[in-house]
Amino acid sequence: MDNTFWALIGLIIFFAIVAYFKVPGMINKALDARSARIRRELDEARALKEEAKQQLAEYQRRRREAEVEAKDIVAGAEREAAALLQDAKAKSEEYVARRTAMAEQKIAQAENDAIAAVRSSAVDIAVAAAAKILGERNASDGNAGLIDQSIGEVRSRLN
């Protein structure tokens, strides 16, 4: 009986104790539980992956919709800006036309005023000259009152 014999006896007792307490069943149960837990985690990971794919597709769809909406907004703003520019151009042309018409009216009025002033000055000069000539010719006559009356009458009719 040497040490090898006692090592064999110890090994057989160890296996008997392990078999008595059903350690292989417990190990199998623990391994089964672990594999079930890993399977659940894999299933959850697959579900999360599918959900992430769906969310990515949804975000891409929303991004495309937002791009289309942004293009529509830009196009609308460009149309509105063009309309405002055209309206401003029309108003500007109308304003220039009104101002031109007003300036032409003022020029015509100034011309009429100048012509009237020249005529009035010419009438005054003509009346004064006629009065002077008639006064010199008829200075000797007693018709001075008649001449003054005639000059006043001519002056009132010409003005």
Automatic annotation (TrEMBL):
One Pfam family hit: ATP-synt_B
Molecular function (Gene Ontology), one example: proton-transporting ATP synthase activity, rotational mechanism
Protein's UniProt keywords contain Cell membrane: yes
Tagged with keyword Amino-acid biosynthesis: no
Assembly notes: F-type ATPases have 2 components, F(1) - the catalytic core - and F(0) - the membrane proton channel. F(1) has five subunits: alpha(3), beta(3), gamma(1), delta(1), epsilon(1). F(0) has three main subunits: a(1), b(2) and c(10-14). The alpha and beta chains form an alternating ring which encloses part of the gamma chain. F(1) is attached to F(0) by a central stalk formed by the gamma and epsilon chains, while a peripheral stalk is formed by the delta and b chains.
UniProt name for this protein: ATP synthase subunit b
Keywords, in A-Z order: ATP synthesis, Cell membrane, CF(0), Coiled coil, Hydrogen ion transport, Ion transport, Membrane, Transmembrane, Transmembrane helix, Transport
Primary site of residence: membrane
Coiled coil: 28-94
Transmembrane segments: 6-23
Topology within the bilayer: Single-pass membrane protein
One annotated Gene Ontology cellular component of this protein: plasma membrane
Protein family per UniProt: Belongs to the ATPase B chain family.
Compartments, record wording: Cell inner membrane; Cell membrane
Purpose of the protein: F(1)F(0) ATP synthase produces ATP from ADP in the presence of a proton or sodium gradient. F-type ATPases consist of two structural domains, F(1) containing the extramembraneous catalytic core and F(0) containing the membrane proton channel, linked together by a central stalk and a peripheral stalk. During catalysis, ATP synthesis in the catalytic domain of F(1) is coupled via a rotary mechanism of the central stalk subunits to proton translocation. Component of the F(0) channel, it forms part of the peripheral stalk, linking F(1) to F(0). The b'-subunit is a diverged and duplicated form of b found in plants and photosynthetic bacteria.
